[in-house]
Write a structure and sequence with these properties.
With 145 residues, the chain is an all-alpha fold. It has two domains: 1-32, no CATH class; 34-141, no CATH class. The chain has helices at residues 2-12, 17-32, 35-61, 67-94, 101-123, 127-141.
Length: 145
């Protein structure tokens, strides 16, 4: 690990050595993280991108497109990435295995997923079909209820 940090700090310069260390820690954490946590994080970022695109479509439909809303979406994704970085560093410092990142990832997926559904509803996409499919799937998975 120290060797990787030394190589990265030489590549990026002494001023950015802290950034290089953070990148190494995040990549090391990513390799050791369970696949389910990795998939949840990726799903959160994918939903954040879809949320931004759908927000743009809703604004265009209402003829209220503003560049500040695009900036809000970019800032949201950067904030998510920073939040993950801080929690990964805390997990390393405290020795906790995915205890902090998992709730954040689940919150992001829930928040952006519901936002995407709200935007789809605004655009006129029939969500009753999706709701019925989810209910059918739930009944298949839980036949006792």
């Amino acid at each position: 690990m120290e060797k990787s940090v030394a190589v990265l700090s030489k590549l990026v310069g002494s001023f950015d050595a802290l950034t290089a260390i953070l990148i190494v820690y995040v990549l090391t954490w990513w390799d050791a993280a369970p696949e389910s946590v990795q998939r949840l994080i990726v799903a959160g970022f994918v939903l954040a991108v879809f949320d931004a695109l759908l927000r743009g479509l809703v604004a265009k439909k209402a003829q209220e497109f503003k560049s500040c809303r695009v900036n809000d979406s970019i800032i949201k994704v950067i904030t998510y990435a920073c939040g993950y970085g801080v929690l990964i560093a805390l997990e390393y410092a405290l020795g906790l295995p995915n205890v902090l990142v998992l709730p954040l990832a689940a919150l992001i997926v829930y928040r952006d997923g519901t936002s995407c559904l709200k935007h789809l509803n605004t655009l006129g996409v029939p969500l009753q079909f999706i709701e019925q499919r989810l209910r059918d799937w739930y009944k298949e998975q839980n036949p006792d209820e």
